Amino acid sequence: MEAGGVADSLLSGACVLFTLAMYSTGLSDLRQMRMTRSVDSVQFLPFLTTDINNLSWMSYGALKGDGTLIFVNATGAVLQTLYILVYLHYCPRKRPVLLQTVTLLGVFFLGFGYFWLLVPKPEAQLQQLGLSCSVFTVSMYLSPLADLAKIIQTRSTQRLSFPLTIATLLTSASWTLYGFRLGDPYIMVPNLPGILTSFIRLWLFWKYSKEQDRNYPLLQT
């Protein structure tokens, strides 16, 4: 195998490994829900939006004929669907959750029907679907920044997950390189904000780690 083929295989493997590691961080929430038999402190919307994102990118991968995109996002969709079902099982107020789910799934299937039925040319389908996936991914990466004000105000990073931050950084970096290697801006560009927001969160961990250590003895007294 040529050097270029080896590099592509390693990069594809890195994308699969890091992305599945990022998705598996949700297993801690699943374990917590099963142990406590409740959904306290577990957010539902990230499960749902990630599931829709996975289904969208899986469609893009199928249209592009990219096995890496198909495998990663199919596996991610299965995991997110599992998290959603467990959340629904333990959630006491199921109606708002079901309403959110039906609404987003309805939007997804409407978009799916538009791309496959009303956009006749495969090239146009690929471009429009890739752009839609990119915009959705960027919004997902930027949404956690809404918590920055509370983190800075409380001088505490308890709202942040360090393993998820590292996994997001590695995942975003590997997909950025993968998109660059393929010359696909729809894969490369939306993952750049993931790198940026991960570094911001790492800076917050460094910035407020001493504050947490200083406050810990006070909490004990």
TrEMBL record:
One example GO MF annotation: glucoside transmembrane transporter activity
Major localisation: membrane
TM stretches of this protein: 6-23, 69-90, 97-117, 160-180, 186-206
Name the record gives this protein: Sugar transporter SWEET
Annotated localization: Cell membrane; Golgi apparatus membrane
Pfam families noted in UniProt: MtN3_slv
Listed Gene3D superfamilies: 1.20.1280.290
Keyword Transport annotated: yes
Record key words, sorted: Cell membrane, Golgi apparatus, Membrane, Repeat, Sugar transport, Transmembrane, Transmembrane helix, Transport
Membrane disposition: Multi-pass membrane protein
UniProt signal peptide: none
Protein function: Mediates sugar transport across membranes.
Family the entry assigns: Belongs to the SWEET sugar transporter family.
Assembly description: Interacts with TRPV2; the interaction probably occurs intracellularly and depends on TRPV2 N-glycosylation.
GO cellular component annotations of the record: Golgi membrane; plasma membrane
